[in-house]
Amino acid sequence: MTPWKEIVGLPFACRGEDADAIGGARPGVVVRPGSVDEVQAVVRAAAARGAVIAPSGLGAHLGIGAPPRRLDVLLRLDRLDRVVDHQPADMTVTVQAGCPLARLQETLAAASQWLPLDPPLPERTTVGGLVAANLSGPLRASQGTVRDLLLGLRLVGADGALVSTGGRVVKNVAGYDLSKLHTGALGTLGVLVEATFKVRPCPAREAALVVACRTPADAGDTALALRDAWPVLWLEAAGAGGLADGPGDGAAAIAGVGGIAAEVDAGRARLEAIVAARGLRAAFVDDGAALRARLARFDVEPAAAVLRAAVLPADVGTTMATIESAARAAGAAVRCLAHAASGVVRVAVADAAAVAALVDVLRPGVERRGGALVVTRMQPGVDVEPWGTTGPAHALMRGVKTALDPAGILAPGRHVGGI
Amino acid sequence: MPLADRLRALVGPDGVVDRPEALGVYDCDGYTLERASPELVVLPRTPDQVSQVLRLLAAERIPFVPRGAGTGLSGGTLPVGAPVMVCTSRLQQIESIDVANRRIVVQAGVVNAWVTRAVSKHGLLYAPDPSSQPACTIGGNVAENSGGPHTLKYGVTTNHALGVELVLPSGDVVQLGGAVEEQTGYDLVGVAVGSEGTLGIVTRATLRLVAAPEGVRTLLAVFESVEAASEAVSGIIGAGMVPAALELMDRPIIAAVEAAFHAGLPTDAGAVLLVELDGPAAGLDPQAAEVARVCREHGVREVRVARDEAERQALWKCRKRAFGAVGRLAPNYCTQDGVVPRTRVPEILRTIAATAARHDLTIANVFHAGDGNIHPIILFDERDADQVRRVLAAGREILEACVALGGSVTGEHGIGVEKIAQMPLLFGPDDLLAMTRIRAVFDPEQRANPHKVFPDAKVCVEARAPRRQVPL
Fold this sequence. Notes:
The structure holds 2 protein chains of 2 kinds.
Chain A: H1 4-8, E1 13-15, E2 29-31, H2 36-49, E3 53-56, E4 73-76, E5 83-87, E6 92-96, H3 101-109, E7 113-114, H4 127-132, H5 140-143, H6 146-149, E8 150-156, E9 162-166, H7 178-182, E10 191-198, E11 200-201, E12 205-212, H8 216-229, E13 234-238, E14 252-259, H9 261-277, E15 281-285, H10 288-296, E16 305-310, H11 316-330, E17 334-339, E18 344-349, H12 355-368, E19 372-378, H13 394-404
Parallel strand pairs in A: 2-4, 3-4
Antiparallel strand pairs in A: 1-2, 5-6, 6-10, 7-11, 8-9, 8-10, 12-14, 12-15, 13-14, 13-17, 16-18, 16-19, 17-18
Chain B: H1 3-11, E1 16-17, H2 20-23, E2 40-42, H3 47-60, E3 64-67, E4 84-87, E5 94-98, E6 103-107, H4 112-119, E7 124-125, H5 138-144, H6 151-154, E8 161-167, E9 173-177, H7 188-192, E10 201-208, E11 210-211, E12 215-223, H8 226-238, E13 245-250, H9 251-261, E14 271-279, H10 281-297, E15 302-305, H11 309-320, H12 322-325, E16 332-335, E17 338-339, H13 345-358, E18 362-367, E19 373-374, E20 376-380, H14 385-404, H15 423-426, H16 429-442
Parallel strand pairs in B: 2-4, 3-4
Antiparallel strand pairs in B: 1-2, 5-6, 6-10, 7-11, 8-9, 8-10, 12-14, 12-15, 13-14, 13-18, 16-20, 17-19, 18-20
Helix pairs in contact in B: 1-3, 8-10, 8-13, 9-11, 13-14
């Protein structure tokens, strides 16, 4: 417990339990710093001892990535949970890394604004986790991902130095945009302690249209037809059974429409015309936000594993069809739900025994087309390499890791190719 | 064999410029306060030739400076300590257009405006639209992370560049990112975009295209004072609207563009706001009414709405060619680029006015008010050495004021050589160390665009009398 309890105080340094493990790696100690100074002191102490650190928030998304090769200190940032500065008229917000996304959204909602990122479990998703794991949800179709909304970061580097990236204004091209490097880096390049985002006005109304489709391929195509007909707020495509209680049990395209009432009405009319022209049926959903939140939860619903195939938008339908037929051949049950405009197909696999074989069958085809197949969640007992083949830039990525964390104390092994 | 001949063997006899009288064209970009000629300029025709050229330079350990169309405004292409300039302007192929996936792959020398032109028949466009878009190239846009008026709603280059092909200083070619949106591993595209040529040379880019909006409303709001106009900007943003563009022009700019283009702008007004709303037609009239209401709250004299595309284009011509029109006001001008939080625009405008008075200078303002991205244009006469000194001092003071208000020293023009001295205002030693460590991963010998961006890289460049600028 020395020196951790001296740094953060006795109640905030505890022996690691099984529940604190990342993958199979159980931390020796869980440390909960109460200030940025304490984060720096913990990192310095770890660096001095060669102890391996992994940052975490509330632990909801720690299954993403590979387990660290070793884990001495789990650095839990949940005590750094303040909304530091929200300037509604500037449409920016600065928030500490441990603040839950749901709480941040409440603060913003008071000014009719939101940070338009909607991963599952917003109550248990911290801002630091949001950035470090590059989490997103259906809204990415129109609002982009973390990289499009993040203006700046403060983080503690592997040597304990406090480093700032970017700034607090909505436009800024001074120096390298290192905020992007830390986005999705899973804490392998630094411990995030604060983030500044641009925020946007909430749409006055949000509705949705659920279109029953004949096949997964049809769902992908229909989704893009909807995208071409209207600037949709979000856009999902479901394979057979992808939508747990959708129309029938078949495939579907689901489009969210946002804006003032006149825009929502016009969007609905335009989308329904597309649906009719394709000879399909559609159900209008008044509370689009609630449906969207339900679709976002897909990633964390009970499953042996959740795969994530990144492909081109036009390949979403055929990718879902390929996955479903591969699953049938393997006798496995899968459900597919895609962020159709972004080309991100999520696959929930029910049977633990089938996961590795499915990944082996599907991954080469996806990678050949310039995409990736990543396993974002797996039950204990499922043993599969989560990342897949390293891409052509891997040597540079390894160089970046070595440049910022030469001793390899920041969650080594978490990222692609053992970085 | 001399270097020039070895380069000619790679790129052809017309691909190398080394006659002193021909090199003068390359001694500065849009930032003209400092000059330096390269010893020779290489103009490869293909991405592969760029790689071969850099491989040769690597073998000889020769530093180089990349250049696109040379429209940059921070001296990023000034050849300082780099004898060889590598121009990507001949890499002009639009390689593929993918309508279904809304992607386009272009070579670095493709001009910004060509991209939208190539896809407009499909109802698509390329969103970043710097004022120099008829001339500036995608390679330069990627290097500078260029913006433009419509980035308020649509974002800047980094939000639209999905992948880049980067030729490392070693000559090795690496593909970063690609057409698939979600990529595994560190976001090196995000690092390469805006790296100002210090990591290598971008030869190709995969860009995201967006759907052209169904409708557009362009409004011109006329105010008695700059203060009232900038308060109205805060009011429009505060009302929960995100216009496609929100641009402010002050009285000196109005006078200059009116003299140049005769668009019927009120030359007695204190300022005008150019407000563009786009999106579904159903939402445009209510939003336009709301903008007009907010403007009335702030004492607007008059709100004009462009009745057709021709009127809209006339208004945008005034805005986008404002810099050129400034040539009528003074023999020379220097455009600054700073950012403040949007709500601090009135304050920074007061600071600019006070700075102008203190240094006995005229400063005109035309800028992206919705983003808080100011572009004070400092007018001067290069023949007056004392005035040149005051111009530089005023520019520095304005940027320092931006930082003091919580902003940045550059919103879209880059650091280049111009703002190296201001980097420590924004970043501490540990912040800069992180950046230079990343640089060393790509360019361990610091041969790619040396002496740019980072303070310790600054060498003494003699500030020479600037040449006269001609209106665009």
